[in-house]
Amino acid sequence: MPGLMVHLMTARALWPEGPAVFYLGSIAPDAVRGWREKDATHFRDLEDRSEALASLARQMQSELSFPFLSTCLLPPDPCLLYGEGVLLHLFTDWKWDLSYLRAYRRQKGEGWFLPYREELNRAGSWAFHHSDWAKPLWQAMQSVEEFGATPGATAEEVRALAQRNYLWHCEHRLEASAVFPPETLEQFARQTAREYEDWRKRIG
To answer: Across residues 15-19, what is the average pLDDT?
Structure first.
């Protein structure tokens, strides 16, 4: 769970010119409210998420206009684009949790959660206010009308997530996180996008 701006950074590293519906999908799983429900929909309640993610990927059609997936010249279904964003979100969380989250919890021990959230807030705020693409992208995501289903969340909850977080970022301008500095986020986003592309090719 790296924070929504990191999800958007990863989505942009994968598909810089992607449509807003894809980016909306890349944050949508965090619209799930309860932590138990979110653990289940993110596969965090499994000892190993890899097979669950692979199974989900195999269920999805691949006629999307990513360079590494496209076999179709027709405009792809918005629901498929949204679903690919959802899959990327779950993959990104998996990679983050195995690396940065695990290391942070090991270092902090009991009581890790609130300081962790504060560091993510700092990291996300800094990224929002120092990226020329962030504000227009958040606005574009709020204008998406047609998108797919989100396990554990309604369409209204997904829209509310985008609206609420856009306003939060507009109203909060925080210093960069010392724990998750900008260069760390950028490196993670680029690496995760590359790993996702390779993984998606293998899964099919």
So the answer is: 91
Q: Up-side HSE of residue 56: CA atoms within 13 Å toward CB? A: 21
CA–CA gap between residue 204 and residue 197 (Å, rounded): 10
Cα end-to-end distance, the chain, whole Å: 25
Q: Which long-range contacts (CB under 8 A, 24 or more apart) does 131-136 make?
A: 131/9, 133/12, 134/5, 134/8, 134/169, 135/170
Torsion of CA 81, 87, 89, 94, to 10 degrees: -160
Least Cα distance to 27 among 59, 53, 5, 42 occurs for 5
Residue-wise pLDDT for 43-73, tens only, equals 999 989 999 999 998 887 554 545 545 544 4
Contact at 8 Å (CB) between 31 and 153? yes
pLDDT tens column, 100-143: 999 999 999 999 999 999 999 999 999 999 999 999 999 999 99
